[in-house]
Amino acid sequence: MSDGFDEIPNAVKILIAGGFGAGKTTMVGAVSEIAPLLTEELLTEAGVGVDDLAGIEEKTTTTVALDFGRITLSPRIILYLFGTPGQGRFWFMWDELAHGALGAVVLADTRRLDTCFPSIDFFERRGIPFVIAVNCFDDAARYTAREVREALDVGEDVPIALCDARVRDSAKEVLVTLVEYVVNTQPSVRATI
């Protein structure tokens, strides 16, 4: 006889991180099954000289707190997605956002690959498992996963996926890759999911 607890899905916190303009808000919005909470604000004169728009000159908004969405991967796993702000001046919130996270997606933009280094460093220092998701922008050069791995100097164990953050199925595959990676490398998690 079931006590009903085996039917309660596991709520899992996932961070979506990366550099300014890498597509974090887009990914959360594309994959969320609920209307996402977005804290997008217009870029203002205050950001001139502070926000590096090289390569993303058309960008007009920025996340000032977080983005939030939810996706059900299976009857047993619901992911709560927290998109982080990408600019250094908002990084004071990252420790709070990371608290209790099972893992993270680091979105990489090959036009500005160096902007994802702070995210990689953040998760490595805290021992939070992460995957690299290369957001394949239409105007960006294409690189293989191996080339990206070498450029970012991440270990062979870190999954690297190519994706289009605008496309729900593509973004969902990245999340599945992350969950599978965490389950396969964290025995304590395997027992709970």
C-alpha geometry: globular
User: Main beta sheet, described?
Assistant: 7 strands, mixed
Helical/strand content category:
alpha/beta
Number of helices: 6
Compute the separation of the termini in Å: 21 Å
Mean of residue pLDDT values: 83
Q: Unreliable segments (pLDDT under 50, ≥5 consecutive)? A: 1-5
| Radius of gyration from the alpha-carbon trace, in angstroms | 17 Å
What's the arrangement of strands in the largest beta sheet?
2-3-4-1-5-6-7
Strand content: 25-35%
Order of helices and strands: EHEEEHEHEHEHH
Which percent bin holds the helix content?
Answer: 25-40%
* Strands, total number: 7
Provide a quick synopsis of the model.
With 193 residues, the protein is of the alpha/beta class. It has helices at 24-31, 94-98, 117-126, 145-152, 168-185, 187-190; strands spanning 10-18, 37-42, 61-74, 77-83, 103-108, 130-135, 160-163. The protein contains six helices and seven strands; from the N terminus they run E-H-E-E-E-H-E-H-E-H-E-H-H.
Topology:
Layout: E1 10-18, H1 24-31, E2 37-42, E3 61-74, E4 77-83, H2 94-98, E5 103-108, H3 117-126, E6 130-135, H4 145-152, E7 160-163, H5 168-185, H6 187-190
Parallel strand pairs: 1-4, 1-5, 5-6, 6-7
Antiparallel strand pairs: 2-3, 3-4
Helix pairs in contact: 1-5
